[in-house]
Amino acid sequence: MRRDFYEFFCPVKTVAGYKALEHMAFELRSRGVSRPLVVSDRGVVGAGLVTTVTEALAADGISPGGLFDEVPPDSSIASVKAGVAAYRAQDCDCLIAIGGGSVMDTAKAINILATEGGDDIRPFAGVNNLRRPLKPFLAVPTTAGTGSEVTAVTIIKDEEAHAKLPVVSPYLLPDVAVLDPRMTLKLPPQITAATALDALTHATEAFTCLAKNPVSDAYATTAISGVARWLVPVLEEPSNAEGRLELAQAATMAGIAFSNSMVGLVHSLGHAVGATAGVHHGTCMGIFLPVVLEFNLEAREREIGELLLYLSDAETYAATPASQRATAAIARIRSLKDQVKSLCGLPRSLSETGQVRREDLDAIAALALDDGSMIMNPVEVSLEEARALLDRAW
Amino acid sequence: MQAETGSSAADTAGRVAGSPGRARAAYRAQLLYVRVMMWLVGRLLQAASAVDPVIRAEVAALPADFTFAMRLSSGLAGLSMRRDGERLATRKSSAGESLSLVFEFKHLTHAFLVLGFVEGTARAFANDRMTLSGDAALAMKIVRCLNRMEALVLPKFVAARAVKRYPQIGLGTKLGLALKIYGRFLIDLFGG
Fold it and tell me: How far is B18 from chain A (nearest CA, A)?
């Protein structure tokens, strides 16, 4: 008797496409709120993206209660504290996050304190420590990769303890994710590529790791097709609004998939390299994805072979013998990385980043072994094997 | 529409309830098994952490005040351990205490599947059968300790179902360590 069992949860409303920003006022009003605190960072404000959103709101009679644009590259306890002070000072009643992963994480943490009171996020750290819904929260991603607009997690840096505080709760999920192509049109090519490879990895690991399930598979495979189809055209023509929206949708679907099915060894290695050498997360994902898929072939050859259909097309898939589909899928990912490298210079290996020292690889392997993502990898990984994978990615 | 008679209403209720007596007996049997296995796992992990160098190395990397529990969300069964110097030791749990790490099975049957070696720890996480509260890096160390202990004290055909990949351990090494673990288990049990 099969004892398969899974849970799937995503209550986030997705508002996507042409003039999606103009729908935000309706979403706020329908939740009985009208004074949002806009949470963002200086870069996003400087690029004019916050103005685009506030103009769309103003056209429908909503003026933000305030703007908090002091989010650092790594969300921190101090910035959360400052953000909730701004929320209270401006008498706001809801939040809008406009930015990437750090902005989303900060806004989620501000929302906890705005709802629960106090100015210390630490008591809420851990899993399921929130007991009631938070204030209405709209998420407007300006990168297409992290999927934070549909995840129930925030990670805040505790500068004093030199640690990262994760808060996990379904109440952290935004009410609405707003995907508008205007938000990612100005994203630099390398960031576009790195975040898209992050999304591709979220979807691929959700599809190939232990917690895969039929519902998340549907999101994952659609996300993989989206990145495979549109990443190169967008890098060739950055103003391609259709392609930008397709990548944003792919990132959101990959986020829905991995927030339900989790990720595996690619993320374990990537987190360890990011923590040790500061390499951009998406860049790490691109570096390790094909290497780890090769490693996981012993347990997941059929699933990796299926990826070929979504990474290429039906004709290629049908013309490739079943026994060769997995290696062909991995080769397709390598080919995509080569194209990306030639178009925007994104590193394909650890050595190409110029940030990782070979003498740190032992410590990186040990760190990766303790990463929580490791448990979902379909193949057990020893310290020696993790070290060998780093050599392969060098 | 015909009104339901008293006897047909009782029949309907019986069909809906199934066989409550049998279900209760199965539940009690599972609960007894899970309680015994939780006790056994705690004692065997305590013993293994005293004699196996691989588990000792994992324990050495835990914080000095480390505590963890594995329990049912209903609170009907559980085990609790702490780092005691260079090994792990079982401890008494108390209501409302703060622990470094808590693995909580959402339902008795879920714990029964894992402790009955039908499903491995990683598969149980993947199947949403349990929740984790605490530092994931510490959880990975404890999961590796549990996997190693199971690989040493159980026959290979049983342990292989509990872990993702059965480790490469020579038969002589495995038997030697298993004897030491069971010996330590008996000393802890009867020697105080």
Answer: 21
> Has domain B14-189 been given CATH number 3.40.640.10?
no
Numbered residues of chain B with Cβ closer than 8 Å to any chain A Cβ: 113, 118-119, 121-123, 125-129, 131-134, 136-137, 139-141, 143, 163-165
Which residues of A fall within a CB distance of 8 Å from B165? Answer: 379-380
Q: Name the minimum distance, in Å, from the CA of B144 to any CA of chain A.
A: 10
Pick the closest to residue A283 from A341, A205, A214 (CA basis): A341
Q: Which residue has the tokens 């347990």?
A: A299
Helices (H), B83-135: 108-115, 121-126
The Cα–Cα gap between B120 and B122 comes to: 6
Out of A5, A127, A369, closest to residue B127 by CB: A5
Q: What is the arrangement of strands in the sheet containing A126-127, beginning at the earlier edge strand? A: A126-127, A163-168, A153-158
pTM of structure = 0.90
The DSSP call for residue B116 is T
Cβ atoms A227, A202 nearer than 8 A: no
Short-list B169, B34, B99, B107, CA closest to A127: B99
Task: Tell me the domain boundaries of chain B.
Answer: 14-189
pLDDT tens by residue, B155-168:
999 888 888 888 88
Alpha-carbon separation of residue A334 from A196, A225, A339, A348 (angstroms): 14, 16, 9, 9
Buried b / exposed e across A202-232, counting CB within 10 Å, b at 16+?
Answer: bbbbbbbbbbbbebbbebbbbbbbbbbbbbb
ipTM of the complex: 0.81
Of A3, A262, A379, the CB nearest to B119: A3
Residue of B114, B144, B147, B168 best to disrupt the A interface, most CBs of A under 10 A: B144
Looking up tokens 């630490």 gives: A122
pLDDT digits (tens, 9 = 90+) for B118-150: 888 888 888 888 888 888 888 999 999 999 999
Residue B63 contacts residue B72 (beta carbons within 8 Å): no
Each of the 394 residues of chain A gets a pLDDT tens digit; together they read 556 788 999 999 999 999 999 999 999 999 999 999 999 999 999 999 999 999 999 999 999 999 999 999 888 999 999 999 999 999 999 999 999 999 999 999 999 999 999 999 988 887 778 889 999 999 999 999 899 999 999 989 888 876 778 888 899 999 999 999 999 998 999 999 999 999 999 999 999 999 999 999 999 999 999 999 999 999 999 999 999 999 999 999 999 999 999 999 999 999 999 989 989 999 999 999 999 999 999 999 999 999 999 999 999 999 999 999 999 999 999 999 999 999 999 999 999 999 999 999 999 999 999 888 899 999 999 999 999 999 999 9
